[in-house]
Amino acid sequence: MTTQPEKSTGFAATDVLVSEFDGGPDTVQRALSTPDELQPHTELGLKDDEYDRIRQILGRRPTAAELAMYSIMWSEHCSYKSSKVHLRQFGDKAPQNTRMLAGIGENAGVVQISDDLAVTFKVESHNHPSFVEPYQGAATGVGGIVRDILAMGARPIAVMDPLRFGAADHPDTARVLPGVVAGIGGYGNCLGLPNIGGEIVFDPTYQGNPLVNALSIGVLPVSRLQHKEAAGVGNVVVLLGARTGRDGIGGVSVLASATFDEEAEQRRPSVQVGDPFMEKLLIESCLELYDAGLVAGIQDLGGAGLTCALTETAAAAGTGMRVWLERVPLREASMSPTEILASESQERMLLIVTPQNLPSVLAVAEKWGVWATAIGEVTPAEPDGSPGRLVISWNDHVVVDVPPGSLADDGPVYARPIREPADLILLQADKAETLPRPSTGDELRETVLRMVASPNLCDKTWVTEQYDRYVLGNTVLAQPEDSGVLRIDERTGLGVALSVDGNGRFARLDPYEGAKLALAEAFRNVAVTGAEPVAVTDCLNFGSPEDPAVMWQFAEAVRGLADGCQQLGTPVTGGNVSFYNQTGAAAIHPTPVVGVLGVFDDVSRRIPMGFPVPAGDASAGEQIFLLGETAVELSGSEWAWVTHGHLGGRPPKVDLVREQRLGALMSRASQAGHVSAAHDLSDGGLAQVLVESCLRHDVGARIALPDDGTTSFVYLFSESAGRAVVSVPRGHDKAFVALAADYGVACTPIGTTTREPVLEVRGEFTIPLPELREAWSATLPALFGGTAEIAGRHGDPEHAANPSAPAGDRGDAVLVSAAAGAAMETAAPIEAPLAEAADEVVSVTLEIAEPEDAVPGGPIEPTED
Amino acid sequence: MRIGVVTFPGSLDDGDAARAARIAGAEAVRLWHGDPNLYGVDAVVLPGGFSYGDYLRCGAIARFAPAMESIIDAARGGLPVLGICNGFQILCEAHLLPGALTRNQHLHFRNRDQHLRIESTDTAWTNGFTPGQEVLIPVKNGEGCYVADERTLDALVAEGRVVARYTRGNPNGSQRDIAAITNEAGNVVGIMPHPEHAVEALTGPSLDGLGFFTSVLRALAGASAGGQQPGGQ
Fold first, then answer.
1. Mean per-residue pLDDT of chain A
2. Least CA distance to B15: which residue of chain A?
3. Which residues of B touch A786 (CB under 8 A)?
4. Among candidates B55, B170, B194 on the partner chain, residue whose Cβ is nearest the Cβ of A790
5. Which residues on chain A are in Cβ contact (under 8 Å) with B148?
6. pLDDT in tens, A46-80
7. Which of A270, A462, A588, A590 counts the most CB atoms within 10 A of its CB?
8. Is there a contact between B171 and B222 (Cβ–Cβ < 8 Å)?
9. Could you tell me which of B23, B21, B52 has the C-alpha nearest to residue B201?
10. Contact between residue B182 and residue B163 where contact means Cβ atoms under 8 Å apart
């Protein structure tokens, strides 16, 4: 085949796609007359036997367009060919659940939460695009998952983002993280969806392969549930939304289904470009169409674009479909039929509507200023009753004639070889429990300060401030709380809680237990708010399935998650598998990320995480209890990693019965009003929880750890599962202790909250809260710069003189602090220790600073009185 | 009393503004950008969001909407108008308020609970506060840095038209810490933070935002009782 040089992108698959222009499109007729023409199936990611099967299905060689369609739909990303045999467990082991209205296989799972309302939620990966082009990759990740939610008939109401990056201080993390965060904010904020939680994890394992997962949740009246079937012969196929361009061609087959190498840079054309404004209009127009009852079937266009939407809607209904490709509105008129079918241009939906409703559909689209084009129609099944065919023409050339089910449902399925990683035995033998530990109070104090300043445990405000958490006015709790909590129904107070968690280190040490631990943590995060956990979504991030060791990790993780969900009675409603997360031969830690949805009958009884500010003149603080049991479990812990750079041993044991008991206790306690704050224990253990609970509202705590043979160190840093810290108001403590006994949950009094701003662990150390806050909050701004208080101009004395004026940036913070002294206490976020980082940070600040003359009025003036 | 809330393509906080108006005791009336009819509303809120994607310049396209032509005329005649965030940007583009809102100086979108000091209570939207009162209201914007030439800034200060200032830290670099301003008559107010997100204990950091909506009801009641201009108290 020849390649037209002017169209070359240095990207083999695209070259193949455009080459069909030599002599017009490759039609079905031409395929019949040139049966032996060599086809680039290997370049498109199809194996020889897969290609042979395509020829067998069609009874001829595929056309260029058909070949591209098979390569896309049979890619790992679309066909789940390596994971299918394992994922069946989610169905086989699914607990009885009457709430499920739609499950795996739909665009997203749907869970009924009241007589007339349901929610739909799902988490998905957008890892590779976000590494290649962080802003657009992350932005379109949000856009894609939101369309999945929309396709179920729901109004999207929030997003969450579990993110994993390489080492925090690695130069490439400074490229990827700010772009990803800006992309998520840029898209989600403009879409008007509150971002209510997520994760930000740093680990060198993700250096060449960050994980950008995106979760969205939506709400719908039960009666508005939509389906993707292209039912009703004669119905019209309508493409709604953005015009189709050349972006994202090969996204799923090339980016998501192959391992990264040095040529990743050249794959930028495979990344889609997002337009959140168009998506907002798409959401509003779809909702208006649903409410008017104008939609017979709907499917979003995401990975695999039109190819996926056409084949899946037709296959789901068993009907055929006739499509005229030249009707598709294009951004670039020169696009070939194959490119139109393969494009992953964002912000598009495929509608199936009756001919009578077509004018009304077009009118709604026009009202919102969205393109809507009838591109085809639903055709009957074959006379013998077998499913119909998908026939696609382009300017009178028939370029596709296939059974849609062969693309959508009957892709190859592999039971790939699995083998426990060779290094696992040695890794598990290298336990963290034997590492040197801090023993004196001073050493513990220093360890606490070092831990809270570490990238995984530090304050994430630098990131979360870039997300709108207020829009839509129903956000009850958002990050840094344990769960995002949303009001669903203003009238009844019905609400939901959502948490998403994962721990790649635990899963590396034991993928079966690691997956269960991720589930347990998300379950616990939801339960401690008082909500009842009801359903699960998952995003399974792994290396190459062609590596038996990775495949073993995957199989174990799926088994663990399926077993765990069965035990907890929370079915997996849907999710996503992301393979090939590796650079060269090195796979990432297996990283199952689990989202748990909980329900509140009355969301006003939600329990927040921060110790409450003592009311009025109450001199006595609240009682603090530790729920659950603490064992010596340090392997895979944040402590082992931060202080020793150690990963080895076995992860903490997980006992899901205890998790259930803890959840039931918290639900009951929240109904009875016994608990004013609750925080789950996970990364960083009790020490981290105490720090976060104190700093939330600047309320101190005096802790006296039990003298029961367990050392203070183990109490503070062990990461045993099934635990939480609660704050109980005076007068409720006896009742709460009795309730905990009823539920069989160990309940240990460990101290009281105090007005005095200190965290004291009796007999060990006392740390003033300002010192804790400084250590906790300085890390990300020092690494990524940019969003400290607005820069005062260097040498502008008026700034220092006025307490209400903007505080200085880190560059002149020292100057400002010195000049203003105590007056700056509230405004200046930076104090002495950060000055060490000043040089480095100043250079970052200067790079992004606007030129002096950017502000028409000149320098910022201080407040006038 | 009926408070109209305009929905432009890309408006996001329109539902929240309508909810706030209802909680304050008004009837919320949804207005559509393409419809010049204001349906006799007593006041108008231009809500936050990204009208038309903010792709040209924030508010630059929205000001030409048919609904805006009616609102501009009505505002010149004394109709109370509150522009929140994107609404503030639209009011500046429509020249109902001076100055402009530019990219935050740190170049990031920022969402935080922000302390403000109410500087002027002589407007239709702030007459229920006390001068100097400190309130806590969420701010969330990418382009909230208020700028104007020195003479305009001096005039705004001298004429008491700075309605609210950021305190305890300026989130976006606004000149003279300006968070909200008003026109000469006091009926048109633009504010960058979001009072509609601070009207319920369950979902907001305070109830301070409610004051903006109860103020306009008071102004309207006063106007209908005493024939006063809504702005003056």
1. 87
2. A472
3. 106-108
4. B170
5. 856-857
6. 999 999 999 999 999 999 999 999 999 999 989 99
7. A590
8. no
9. B23
10. yes
| B92 in catalytic set | no
B52 CB within 8 Å of a chain A CB: yes
Distance CA A223, CA A290 (A): 10
Partners of residue B158 in chain A, C-beta under 8 Å:
none
**pLDDT tens across A779-788, in order?**
999 999 854 4
Please indicate if any CB of chain A lies within 8 Å of the CB of B186.
Answer: no
Contact at CB, B110 and A281, closer than 8 angstroms = no
Q: Which fold has domain A429-458+607-770?
A: Phosphoribosyl-aminoimidazole Synthetase; Chain A, domain 2 (3.90.650)
Residue B2 main-chain phi, psi, to 5 deg: -120, 120
pLDDT at A468: 98
Q: How far is A664 from chain B (nearest CA, A)?
A: 24
Domain boundaries, chain A: 25-92+227-411, 429-458+607-770, 785-854
Q: What is the dihedral of CA A630, A636, A641, A645, to 10 degrees?
A: 130
Name which of A277, A476, A807 is nearest B53 (Cβ-Cβ): A277
pLDDT digits 0-9 by tens, A767-820: 999 999 999 999 999 999 854 443 333 333 333 333 333 333 333 333 333 333
CA distance A845 to A28: 59
Domain B2-226 fold: Rossmann fold (3.40.50)
Active site residues of A: 77, 126
Find the Cα–Cα–Cα–Cα dihedral A734, A738, A741, A745, rounded to 10°: -50
B149 with A186: Cβ contact below 8 A: no
What's the complex ipTM?
A: 0.95
Which of these is catalytic: B93, B115, B145, B194? B194
CA distance A795 to A814: 12
- Span A279-296, pLDDT tens digits: 999 999 999 999 999 999
In chain A, which stretches have pLDDT less than 70?
A: 1-23, 250-270, 617-619, 786-865
- List the structure tokens of A112: 């009924």
Nearest by CB: A790 against B49, B105, B153 = B105
Query: Which SS3 state, helix, strand or coil, does residue A65 take?
Result: helix
Q: What one-character DSSP code corresponds to residue A513?
A: H
> Contacts of residue B106 in chain A, CB cutoff 8 Å?
786-788, 790-791, 848
